[in-house]
Amino acid sequence: MFAVTQLAPKDAGEFPVFRMGANGLACFIDAVNRDIAREETLKPRIAVYREGKNFTPQLQITQNKGWFNPFVQGVLSQGVSVVVNDIGLTRPACEAVETATGVPADWVMQQNLYVTPPEVQGFSPHCDVHMVVVAQLYGRKEWVIYDKVADNPVITQGQTDVLFPEKGEVPAVHKRFVVEPGDIFVIPRGVFHDACARGECSVHIAIGCAGIRPIDCIWALAGDALHDSNLRADMTPEDAAAAAAAFLAGRAVPQGRLPRNPQSAVPAPKGPQMLSFEESLRAVPRH
Q1: Residue from 132, 97, 141, 122 nearest 7 by CA
Q2: Angle in degrees, 0-180, between the axes of helices 214-226 and 237-248, rounded to the nearest 10
Q3: C-alpha 283: how far from its chain's center?
Q4: Following DSSP, what letter does each residue of 58-101 receive, concatenated?
Q5: Which residues sit opposite 181 in a β-bridge?
Q6: Which residue ranges of the chain lie beneath pLDDT 70?
Q7: What is the largest CA-CA distance in the chain?
Q8: How many CB atoms lie within 10 A of CB 196?
Q9: What gap in Å lies between CA 207 and CA 123, rounded to an integer?
Q10: How far is 99 from 95, CA to CA, in rounded Å?
Q11: If you count DSSP H runs as helices and E runs as strands, how many of each does the chain have, helices first?
Q12: Whole-angstrom Cα distance, residue 50 to residue 17?
């Protein structure tokens, strides 16, 4: 578990919203702009959604340079949200998460950028199998927290890292709140939520965070067991239980590590040639 920082929250409710300050906001904006400047690497990481519908398979991006800003403007003008997955992380951005929320910087595993046109909801109600730290970079966004929580969900066979309510289920609303640039808050793992841009385009970073879980250690032991031919042999139930117990006897639980964290300094140069996500939004009208 982690301890939330003593930074005074903007909203002291059950889901406190903190102000990360100009320096923290600048860290995230810098990481985003450095990443999108490498347009040739963006194409496989682009996704587009509207109210939970995935239009990504219909995308056709042929250019390598000069396409990102016109593409974003065109998609947003059609009321569709743009997602840039796996934004390159920087150590200052990870540290900004810890400073603002108390979530350890080493728990940060990925950042996804969400650009949403005015009065549009990008996703339907859902929950994630990891904690999400949300940092608002541009515009205003209303978040809805639902009175539905999955108990420490994990990815299992045939699932993705996003879970949705049962078909036809309409979870009750637990809380609504609006965030502005510089606001940052935590959505606990398994909490169902959605969001809608208000008044103008909204840009936020969703930072997936996770520590090591006991099940990770158990899976690691299972991986070791796969390499033991005796443990892969056919046996009676009694012999199989005895062989498993013998394998586990005296075996130390492997110490977990955090291999998911892809922190890196994105090597895009600063200067006039650097893209800015705000440039992409200027041609989109406000409501």
Answers
A1: 97
A2: 110
A3: 27
A4: G-----SSS-HHHHHHHHHHTT-EEEE-SPPB-HHHHHHHHHHH
A5: none
A6: 1-13, 156-162, 256-275, 282-287
A7: 71
A8: 20
A9: 16
A10: 6
A11: 6, 11
A12: 26
Beta strands in 98-245 (DSSP E): 108-116, 127-128, 131-149, 162-163, 173-179, 183-187, 191-209
Using left for φ > 0, alpha for ψ between -120 and 50, and beta otherwise, residue 199 falls in left
Q: Which two tokens stand for residue 112?
A: 């996804």
Task: Dump pLDDT digits (tens) for 233-253.
Answer: 999 999 999 999 999 887 888
Tens of pLDDT, residue by residue over 49-63, are 887 778 887 777 777
Here the tokens at position 43 are 């194409």
Instruction: Please provide residue 237's backbone torsions phi and psi, each rounded to the nearest 5 degrees.
Output: -55, -40
Residue 274 near residue 39, CB atoms below 8 Å: no
Alpha carbons 109 and 94: distance in angstroms, whole number? 9
